[in-house]
């Protein structure tokens, strides 16, 4: 049975390079997994008011179920002002609640960050890592993938044309496959 891997893309921008990266992973599928890209653009900002089951938005229930059903989760984050996007942080927060019912607990995760600039979105990558560590989600320690100058890696048809980035993503995905297996054995 193939693994179910959820991809959470932190950029909501139409034409997002982060979404292009996610779609490339799904299309190339180097590990023959069942990939799903999470929908987070309709998540209301987290509020404890929604912890009451009668008040829980449908979008909250959907993302929580998506995470629960996944064998592992890949986050792909942009960097805004040296941090991750509000949309991605909100999705993480929604899935971590209600108190004591976090779906992140013991869920294997990994992170890709990308930017059109030169920083590789390292700060955003570490911010997501720090948040997940706090939630007891085992985050794959390596390889760390912080892609810079990502805008030149795709052609006008949104196809990945940078062979180095392609190899990095293939290695990353294969490493994550092994991380999920290790998690299943060790935990």
Automatic annotation (TrEMBL):
The keyword Transmembrane helix does not apply. GO terms for cellular component: cytosol. Gene3D superfamilies: 3.40.50.360. This is NAD(P)H-dependent oxidoreductase. GO terms for molecular function: FMN binding; oxidoreductase activity. Keywords: Flavoprotein, FMN, Oxidoreductase. The keyword Transport does not apply. It is an enzyme of class 1 (oxidoreductase). Its EC number is 1.-.-.-. InterPro entries: Flavoprotein-like_sf, FMN_Rdtase-like_dom, NAD(P)H-dep_reductase. Residues 4-145 form the NADPH-dependent FMN reductase-like domain. It comes from Acinetobacter sichuanensis. It comes from the Bacteria. Pfam families: FMN_red (PF03358). Its cofactor is FMN. Transmembrane segments: none annotated.
